[in-house]
Amino acid sequence: MSKSVLWWVERALLLLISTIVLFPIAWMFLTAFKRPRDAYSLSLDFSPTLANFATVFSDPWNLGDMVLNSVIVATVTVLIAVPCASLAAYSFSRFRVKGRKFLFFLILSTQFIPAVVIVLPFFLMFRSLGLLDTRVALIVVNLAIVTPFVIWMIKGFIDAIPTDSEEAAMIDGASRLRVIKDIVLPMAAPGILTSSIFCFILTWNEFLFALILTRRDAVTLPVGLVSFRTERGDLWELMSAAGVMITVPIFIMALLIQKHFTRGMTAGAVK
Amino acid sequence: MAEVQLVDVEKRYGAFLAVPKQSLTIEEGEFLVLLGPSGCGKTTTMRMIAGLEEITSGDLMIAGERANDKPPKDRDIAMVFQNYGLYPHMTVGENIGYPLKLRGMDRKARETRVQETAEKVELQALLKRRPSELSGGQRQRVALARAIVRTPKIFLMDEPLSNLDAKLRVTMRAELKHLHHELGVTTVYVTHDQMEAMTLASRVAVMKEGRIVQLDTPKKIYSEPADLFVAGFIGSPSMNLVEGRITGGNFEAQGVSLPVAEPDRGDVVMGIRPEDVQLTRDGDAPISGKLYALELTGDSTLVTLRNGATSICARGPADFEAPIDAPCALAPKPGARIHLFDKKTGQRLDA
Predict the structure, then answer these.
(1) pTM greater than the 0.90 cutoff
(2) With contacts defined as CB-CB under 8 Å, which chain A residues touch B71?
(3) Residue A227 contacts by C-beta under 8 Å, 6 or more apart in sequence?
(4) CATH 3.40.50.300, applies to A60-261
């Protein structure tokens, strides 16, 4: 019966790890619905309230503006990064150009530089351009961060598509662009969608650049969280409510990813 | 319909020479089979015609026009891929209709044409399905239907039957032959299956290491193989090949003494097909040895005889029986062909 012992050990470990991982999240969700006086107690016995959400959305916190900033920055970043990255990924996957490997390495190598190292040059650059505290600056920076990642991800998905179907389409009379539109994109769609959501999450959670490059107008949600550390102390219940606002969209997206990620689109193309 | 000409066409991948410089003319309406073992360059040659592989040097002419730099879509060809190359996100009907859609045919005309084509390959009941819901044979037929839905200048078929089971392969072979007869479109067909090549081809090009070793009708390839490679590759079971020498107008090897029409010389390989050898009770038969194996194939028995290094297989009557190791004698049938090759170069001697 050693197998059943192992089974129990496994479950116990899984439970332990999940507890450790989920505890802060659960704590945040509970605190978001607590009154200030209950915020420091771990008790589950409290009368839930939506007041914290009302507070964070009103003056002086104005979380609504930050939500809007975050949504615009993340959405525009995805809308630009994913189409560009898809075309780049297709090229890297299919065209045997000289120096292709080096070029691909070069693109990935931009990810090796720690953000802290380049945040100051970025700050100076955007100050010269007069773009400090604008969404445009954040979008540009986020594009620089996520595009290499997304190229790399989508290339993986396109690599997995057999070239036979593409060649068949070319012989059937399709141009290269038509092949991409009719054959490659539909087959890579689950991968591209996954990459888009991944890209959205990265941008949504980006903190360092948003902290340095924004002051008032273009502040995003993660930076907004910091403002709940005031001279009156840390306002945990408000911070939690804002935290919930940041987390929930990501939760929903993670669920969407799961659903699409498991479904293969290439089945049936070749033997 | 069109004539296809390869003039001094060569294909290199960096330093690797895949297909050495050679010329080939595929006549209008012809069914040409490129036959050879895997890695012999037959698929590369076909892909150069299709435009899926760049031609390193030389000219490709389709219907008298240089086609080297034409993209595949402008060459007016249809191709059946070994791995089908279907569009998994489209239904069977959409797969078949895609070439028509690209040519701007309107929906209604397209549907009628798809329906007609589907009937030809017996797919009409499956038009709404997706490729992933089909069996291998059905997918193969979708690939075929997609190729024949329009009438191109050239058909290219890359081992289109290799993924089918033995029975379906024979049926589809006959269908392909009939289709070629019906449409009369110039067809290039790649296979490593000599049976397919023999049954389908107007002419067969046997390839080895990128080179066309022999280009001829199936009949000629079978009866007059140009060298040892072709001799051993064509025919099932393959031709018996025995090393020996010619002395006094006789081919001599261990257990073999056959009169031949070539001048005396050493280093000769004699070839004779199992179909051309028969069992004999004659005391001084030209081939003698001990019975090594008996294999009943249904309509006949393959009798293998051995004598030292000599091993010869003959196709005998189905009811032939004898104990293993029994002395055994064989003789060429009247009118049998005895092929002689140079052992060093492999070339046919009477060529």
Answers:
(1) no
(2) 170, 175-176
(3) A61, A219
(4) no
